[in-house]
Design brief:
GO terms for molecular function: oxidoreductase activity. It comes from Chryseobacterium soli. InterPro entries: Lcp-like, MPAB/Lcp_cat_dom. The protein contains 22 helices and no strands. By secondary structure, the chain is mostly helical. It has one domain. The two termini are about 35 Å apart. The relative contact order is 0.16.
């Protein structure tokens, strides 16, 4: 097999320099105290061509040898009942579940709890952050989005895609969600196998996949960047919206996503422990990513127009207003240059809603107890998820 090496080919490009010298990248460095340089580049870059082979082997041995629904039921049994060394089951299944059922020595349940509490306490701000900063900002990295494009995610529609992301995020960020056999653990394993299934399908059916430039489909380095979105970028977004968090909550958030990453088959040494490490790792990864292309713009607009297509809100004027509020938050949270590249519409008074939200958050922070905010946040997030699942009943996860 051909062996590729990837250089930091975009490190002198205007989009890379703008982001790290004057945009959100600069803010991330100030926020985290990161020391950015390329001295560890060779340590990370091989992961651009590294994939979760354990997940791939299960898909080849279970999913590719029987009907999809039959295979899914079989995997569900292993998730819910566990797997032991003497079970008469495929070796690949044993290998994968031996890893996921093994609790790593570094796992700290108190930190998992703190991380989950921060996600819940952020309430609707958590969901705004995921959508208008993490997801939308991710569309600016052209190669990262190639698997979405070739698997025709656009045809599936943004409502469905958002519903699946929300379903996963909510279920892995509740109390005790990641205990073996619990709901979050189940979501992590199923998501891992969906990634493997997509990757093997791309390799089989999409002959024009440019491995040298794009990396392997859904490779380990891209996975690291995605999960830094759920930790570092998410945390930065909450701060931008006027939320505060304790040291334990911050540590807990990184710990939570490190463990989710472990369950998903991302190599442990790629998952950062704190915001400083995360920013330094992210800096290296962004140097192999070009900025938005026409596919990025299509994905961004599909997400923006999700509010208009989604039947959760009954009236058209409500949907238009929601779209406007998301546009305001996108401009507030992302760099202007990124918004221009993604062709986010410019709207009047775009800072009014996010700045008002920031002021209200600061007051809310001082007047409502942490426990009450966690409880309310959990309830409100579950309600949003319930609404989404109601309108997309045939989610891949169910």
């Amino acid at each position: 097999m051909e062996r590729f090496t990837v250089p930091p080919r975009f490190k002198d490009s205007p989009h890379f320099k703008d982001f790290w010298e004057s945009g959100n990248g600069k803010q991330l460095i100030e926020f985290s105290g990161a020391e950015i340089n390329f001295k560890d580049f060779e340590k990370f870059s091989p992961y651009f061509y590294h994939v979760d082979e354990a997940g791939d082997d299960v898909v080849k041995e279970v999913y590719f040898t029987k009907k999809f629904q039959e295979a899914s039921k079989e995997i569900e049994q292993y998730i819910r009942n566990g797997v032991s060394e003497n079970d008469p089951i495929p070796e690949s299944v044993k290998k994968l579940f031996t890893q996921t059922q093994h609790i790593p020595e570094w796992l700290d349940h108190n930190l998992l709890k703190s991380g989950a509490e921060l996600c819940m306490r952020g309430n609707i701000d958590s969901l705004i952050s995921l959508r208008d900063y993490c997801l939308m900002g991710g569309y600016d990295y052209a190669y990262l989005n190639k698997p979405l494009i070739v698997t025709e995610a656009l045809k599936k529609g943004a409502v469905k895609r958002l519903s699946e992301t929300l379903d996963f995020w909510v279920n892995v960020t509740r109390y005790n969600a990641l205990e073996i056999h619990a709901k979050g653990y189940e979501f992590a394993i199923k998501t891992r196998l969906i990634h493997s299934y997509a990757r093997l399908s791309i390799k089989k059916h999409y002959k024009d996949w440019d491995t040298e430039n794009w990396g392997e489909p859904i490779n380990s380095w891209d996975m690291m960047a995605t999960y830094i979105g759920f930790s570092l970028v998410f945390l930065h977004s909450l701060q931008k919206l006027g939320n505060t968090f304790s040291e334990d909550e911050e540590k807990g958030l990184f710990h939570l996503w490190k463990y989710v990453g472990y369950l998903l088959g991302i190599p442990e040494n790629l998952m950062p422990d704190n915001k400083k490490q995360a920013t330094e790792y992210f800096y290296l990864w962004t140097s192999v990513q070009p900025s938005s292309d026409k596919d990025s713009v299509l994905l961004a607009h599909s997400l923006l127009n999700e509010s208009l297509e989604n039947p959760i809100l009954k009236f058209q004027f409500q949907r238009k207003n929601l779209r406007y509020l998301h546009i305001c938050c996108t401009w507030f949270l992302l760099d202007d240059e990124v918004c221009k590249r993604l062709q986010i519409p410019d709207v009047p008074n775009k800072n009014l809603f996010p700045v008002t939200k920031k002021v209200i958050n600061k007051i809310y922070d001082k007047t409502v107890s942490r426990e009450a905010r966690i409880k309310k946040g959990n309830k409100d997030q579950l309600k949003v998820l319930e609404d989404y699942l109601r309108v997309t009943k045939n989610s891949n996860f169910h």
